[in-house]
Amino acid sequence: MTNSSKMTNKLTQDCTTEMQLEKIRRGQELKFRWRDDWPEMEKNILQSGREAIAQHEESQKANQVEKD
């Protein structure tokens, strides 16, 4: 795991919505778009963010089932 993917995971681990993910992506773009590897970093941010959102949605469904 590279430093940028560790950073990406840290940034997106608590991501729960696409809007929140887009804010993270835009903030990182402002800092890093000048780098040659920005497209790869952006792809990693979006991928790990979407994984975090999916995990959040699954846990919400599981919690809802437990309450019913």
Topology:
Layout lengths: L2 H10 L5 H15 L5 H30 L1
Helix pairs in contact: 1-3, 2-3
Notes on the structure:
With about 70 residues, the protein is mainly alpha-helical. It contains 3 helices and no strands. The protein has helices spanning about 5-10, 20-30, 40-65. Helix 1 runs parallel beside helix 3 (about 40-65) and helix 2 runs antiparallel to helix 3. The longest helix has 30 residues, at about 40-65. The radius of gyration is 14 Å and the shape is elongated. The model has no long low-confidence stretch (mean pLDDT about 90).
Alpha-carbon distance between the two ends: 40 Å
Going by helix content, strand content and strand pairing, the class is mainly alpha
Low-confidence runs of at least 5 consecutive residues: none
Oligomerization status of the protein chains: single chain
Report the β-strand fraction as a percent range: under 5%
Percent helix, as a range, is over 70%
Helix tally equals 3
* Major beta sheet summary: none
Radius of gyration: 14 Å
Mean pLDDT: 89
Number of strands: 0
Order of helices and strands: HHH
- Outline type: elongated
